[in-house]
UniProtKB/TrEMBL annotation:
SUPFAM superfamilies linked to this entry: Acetyl-CoA synthetase-like (SSF56801)
PANTHER family referenced in this protein's UniProt entry, alphabetically: AMP-DEPENDENT SYNTHETASE_LIGASE DOMAIN-CONTAINING PROTEIN (PTHR43272:SF32), LONG-CHAIN-FATTY-ACID--COA LIGASE (PTHR43272)
Domain of life: Bacteria
GO cellular component: membrane
Keywords, in A-Z order: Fatty acid metabolism, Ligase, Lipid metabolism
A Pfam family the protein falls into: AMP-binding_C_3
Domain AMP-dependent synthetase/ligase: 19-435
Ligase in keyword set: yes
Protein name: Long-chain-fatty-acid--CoA ligase
InterPro entries tied to this protein: AMP-binding_CS, AMP-dep_synth/lig_dom, ANL_N_sf
Species assigned in the record: Anaeromyxobacter diazotrophicus
Molecular-function annotations in GO: long-chain fatty acid-CoA ligase activity
Xref: Gene3D superfamilies: N-terminal domain of ligase-like
């Protein structure tokens, strides 16, 4: 029996919503914190809202096969809008909330959306300011009315207005919604998920309900969820990673999805909910570890003493389990004691006290971070996947965690390596193709196998990911190296937030690094080093010494020909608003190499520093001029790593 057959015909998101409302009408399906109070939506209330909205969309002209674009933060209205579009036979297209005008305009126009759901005044302004570039858009629906009372535009409607139109349709045709939902099939287009676009405009990956639900149910087999589980949705819903949990898994299994009040309150809201299920990219897990390290620096001597004595107990037990060795009775007793005295309070502080299934993906996660969470009893796993395979193809199993791998294929998924070293996947979750791009589709899927573009190899059934095939580079002497492999190891350091390794056709490897302001700032305060700004801190000799020790430690793990010989600490963090990163925080290498060409030139020159005169753009649109002198640090060929104070 196939995974979808287990759903007994409820093979689309709207059908699953109807099923869940029928089974558990009063159980909480969604929860949102607003004005300091958690507001709950039962499965029945969820269905009622979707029904009214769907019929309202139909009144606005939405037909089977049409697209609804959604831009905004994580809110119940987002998932309601998505399901409403799908209930009428349409598809949803997510747009990142912090996308630039050009990015928003490209996606809306490319996907042929006739209706755009925009969360608030900021997003509405974006759409209305470029309506002349969006001839296909007929209606803009806003969900948050604040600041929009005085707006007058023929295309503008409120979320409540659309629901009111739907109620009127429902009164006239009470069976219309059910009839339209019943027409849906597993093969229907559910979403168009735009890829991150590291090398140009993003491509729209078309995913059917079969793609999304087959993945969710296969993942459930090896990483089970429960109806009683709680999940906090705080990653962008435009990202396939959030879609696969917040919608695919939540609707298939029936657990509760919670939405935080603001992006700034995410971790506070996570602590309030105490989720059982959590999925987040490495930066979130690394941020938790960093926050603990910062607090330990500031805490009382007694608490610091307890942390420094008890964490090694957790590490020892975790290491034995990683090696699949039995844990001796003495260490089990010590670990139980450490749980009572430290780990229980620490997990509660981070909001992880009830966490049963935790995973990370999108980039490599450092072994120290894995050891930290497993040491205190959080079962963190690495996953691997991509938009074109509905999010996940591999995951670590509970008792088989290997730091350097991304686990084994989930049930129903085959993984192979091509003669060129490319990772290939085959499963029911392989996408339908790229929207309006047959050439790219033919290049991505050949003979049923999805060509990932990633280089890797298999090791005892586990997949090891090396880098993007196109990003594997050569030094001038022909030595091949993977910049991403080295960058990930550099970012394992708590002091390094971003790293870009350069060296194509050059005599040696160089690196452009961004420090982690919070961690390095705390370290500087502890060392009584004064500073004012990020630029000031990153140019300090002591900070260069600190980072040099980290780079040297990474070099010790690399072949001699692929070690970093020079590095520069940049005067600002790499930023998606400056097109240096994608919205999923992947480096746009070509942009960085062009923008920091003078810095790279200095790395390969004889100068000991490079003068910078640049303009920084802030999130609110303001700019500032930065003039700085960046040291170029040369590393000795065999400098041994030294422990940082």
């Amino acid at each position: 029996m196939s995974a979808l057959e287990l759903l007994r015909g409820d093979d689309t998101f709207p059908k699953l919503l109807v099923r869940n409302a029928r089974r558990h009408p009063g159980r909480t399906a969604l929860r949102e914190k607003e004005l300091g109070i958690w507001q709950s939506f039962s499965w029945q209330a969820y269905l009622d809202a979707v029904r009214e909205l769907a019929l309202g969309f139909r009144e606005l002209g939405l037909a089977r096969g049409d697209k609804v674009a959604i831009v905004g933060g994580n809110r119940p209205e987002w998932v309601m809008s998505e399901l409403a579009a799908q209930a009428m036979g349409g598809a949803s297209v997510g747009i990142y909330q912090d996308s630039t005008l050009n990015e928003v305009a490209y996606v809306i126009d490319h996907c042929d959306a006739g209706i755009v759901v925009a969360e608030d005044q900021e997003q509405v302004d974006k759409i209305l300011d470029m309506m002349d570039r969006l001839p296909k858009v007929r209606h803009v629906v806003y969900t948050d009315p604040r600041g929009l009372r005085g707006y007058r535009h023929p295309a503008l409607l409120s979320f409540d207005d659309v629901r009111a139109r739907g109620r009127a349709v429902l009164a006239r045709q009470p069976r219309l919604f059910d009839e339209e939902v019943a027409k849906g099939t597993a093969e229907d287009l559910a979403i168009i998920s735009y890829t991150s676009g590291t090398t140009g405009f993003p491509k729209g990956a078309m995913l059917s309900f079969r793609n999304l639900l087959a993945m969710a149910l296969a993942l459930h087999e090896v990483d089970p969820k429960r109806e009683s589980d709680e999940f906090v949705s705080f990653l962008p819903l435009a990202w396939i990673g959030e879609q696969m949990v917040c919608l695919s898994s939540a609707l298939a299994i029936g657990f509760t999805v919670n939405f935080p009040e603001e992006p700034e309150t995410v971790m506070e809201n996570v602590r309030e909910i105490g989720p059982h299920v959590m999925f987040a990219p490495p930066r979130v897990w690394e941020g938790m570890v960093s926050s603990v390290q910062v607090r330990i620096m500031d805490t009382t001597p007694f608490k610091r003493f307890m942390y420094e004595r008890l964490m090694p107990v957790g590490y020892r037990v975790a290491d034995l389990r990683f090696q699949r060795k039995p844990v001796p009775l003495l260490w089990r007793v010590l670990h139980a004691l450490a749980h009572l005295l430290l780990f229980r309070a620490l997990k509660d502080r981070l909001g992880l006290s009830r966490l049963r299934t935790a995973s990370t993906g999108g980039a490599a996660l450092g072994p120290d971070v894995f050891r930290f969470f497993h040491g205190m009893g959080v079962p963190l796993k690495q996953i691997y996947g991509q938009t074109e395979i509905a999010g996940i193809s591999c995951i670590h199993r509970e008792q088989d965690i290997r730091f350097h791998t991304v686990g084994e294929p989930i049930p129903g998924t085959e993984v192979a390596i091509s003669p060129a070293g490319e990772i290939l996947s085959r499963s029911p979750s392989v996408f339908l193709g790229y929207y309006k791009n047959e050439a790219a589709t033919a290049e991505a899927v050949k003979d049923g196998w999805l060509h990932s573009g990633d280089a890797g190899h298999l090791e005892d059934g586990h997949l090891v990911v090396i880098d993007r095939l196109k990003d594997v580079m050569r030094l001038a002497d022909g030595t091949r190296f993977s910049p991403q492999f080295i960058e990930n190891r550099l970012k394992f350091s708590p002091y390094v937030k971003e790293a870009v390794v350069v060296g194509q056709d050059r005599p040696f490897l160089g690196a452009l690094l961004c420090i982690d302001m919070g961690i390095v700032g705390k370290w500087a305060e502890k060392q009584k080093i004064g500073y004012t700004t990020y630029t000031d801190l990153s140019s300090r000799t002591e900070v260069y010494d600190l980072v040099e020790r980290e780079v040297t430690a990474v070099n010790a793990t690399l072949p001699a020909a692929a070690r970093i010989q020079k590095f520069v600490l940049l005067y600002k963090e790499l930023d998606a608003d400056d097109d240096e990163l994608t919205r999923t925080r992947k480096v746009r290498r070509s942009v960085v190499e062009q923008r920091y060409g003078d810095v790279i030139g200095a790395v390969y020159g004889e100068a000991e520093a490079v003068d910078i005169d640049a303009t920084i753009k802030f999130q609110d649109g303001k700019t500032a001029r930065v003039q700085a002198r960046l040291p170029v640090r040369r590393l000795g060929p065999d400098t041994p790593p030294r422990k940082v104070a």
